[in-house]
Amino acid sequence: MSYDLHGTWDSTNKFLGPYIAAHTNLTEIDNALSLLWRNNIKPGNVVLGLGFYGRSFTLADPKCRTAGCKFTSGARAGKCTRSVGTLSFAEIQRIVASGATVIKDNTAAVKMVVYDTDQWVSYDDAETLKMKIAYANAHCLGGTMVWAVSTDDALGSAAAALSLSTGRKQISLAATSGPDPLTMCQQGECGKPCPAGLSPAQNMYGKDKGSAGINTGCPGDKSKLYCCPSNDMPTCAWRGTAPFCGGKCEGTEVEVSSSTTGDGKLCWTGHKVLCCTKTGSDSAAGHCEWKGSAPFCSSLLGQADCPFGQKALTSSNVGAGGEQPCRWGLKVDFHISVLFTAYTELYAVFLL
Hints:
Blueprint: H1 26-38, E1 47-51, E2 53-59, E3 71-74, E4 86-88, H2 89-97, E5 101-105, E6 110-115, E7 119-123, H3 126-138, E8 143-147, H4 157-165, E9 186-187, E10 199-200, E11 202-203, E12 213-214, E13 224-228, E14 235-239, E15 253-259, E16 272-277, E17 288-291, E18 314-316, E19 331-335, H5 336-351
Helix pairs in contact: 3-4
C-alpha cells in the first residue's frame, strides 16, 4: 500500500510532525521496499499500490509550499468527496484546469498543486504514473494496483493514463471515443423514469403491453425500467413459468436480467429471465453468460465449470442477481465470443 504514506495524522506523530509531504512519493517507497529486499522477499511477490487521489493540507505559511513546510490542518473538503484532507483525481484535475500552480518532483515522481492561496495537495498523473510503472518494472515487481477507480474522472483519464504506461492502448471503456454497446440500453433506477434520451422497452405480450420492468434490488412494488434508444427499441418478455421456472431466452433474444418473481409469480426452483429481441442497442448484453444451476451449482468449495476453451470472468452465488442462490459452490460468468474464438483456433490447428 504505497499511498497514504503521509496525511493529517502526521501532526500527532512525534517522528514526523505537522509537515507537508507527498503521500505517494517514490523516495520513501524505495526506502520501504529496501527493507523487504534485505529480508529476502521476492520482488515478484510485491504489488505496488498507486493512488487516483491526493492527500491535501492547509499551509501554515502560504509562502512556504514545498515538502517540509508546516501545515495547520487538512485542506478544505472537495465538492464531491466532501472529505477534509482528501481530493479525488477528478477534483484535482478541475483545480489544475482553473490555473493552479503545479510543481513536479522528479526524484519523488509526484506532482503537487498549490491553490486558493494556502491549499496544497500531492497527486499522480499520466507523467508520474508512468515513472512509477517504470520503477515497478525495473525492480521486477509482481504488478501494480489502484485505489480507487471511483475517484477517477468521468472520462477515465487516470485509468487511460495508467493503461498507456503499461503498454496497452486502452483500459477504460469510458475513455474510448465510440459508444459502448453495453451502455446503449441500460437498467434505470428503482421507481424512476428512464434517463434523458432513452425510453422504456415494451413487453412483447399481453393486452396492455406496457413497459418491461425489472424488480431485482428494488424495495416493495417498485421496479426498474429497461431503457433503450427510441430509434432502436427492443421488445421484452419474462421467460420461465412458476413454480418450476428454468427460464431461457430464444435464439433471437438476449438475456438482460433475472429474477425469481419476474412478472409476478414466485419460482420455487430456478428463476425467470427477462429476454429482449436482439437489436443493435442491446445485442452486446448477450456476449456473456452465467454457468451453474442452483441450489447445487458446483462442488462444495468450487465453482461451476466453463465450457471448453473458456475462462471465468467472475463468480457469484446468485449469478446476475435475482436468482436462486447456490447452496453449494458458485456460478461463473464467461464471455461467449471468446468460446467461439477458442473453437476456431483449435479447428485451425487441426487443418494445419
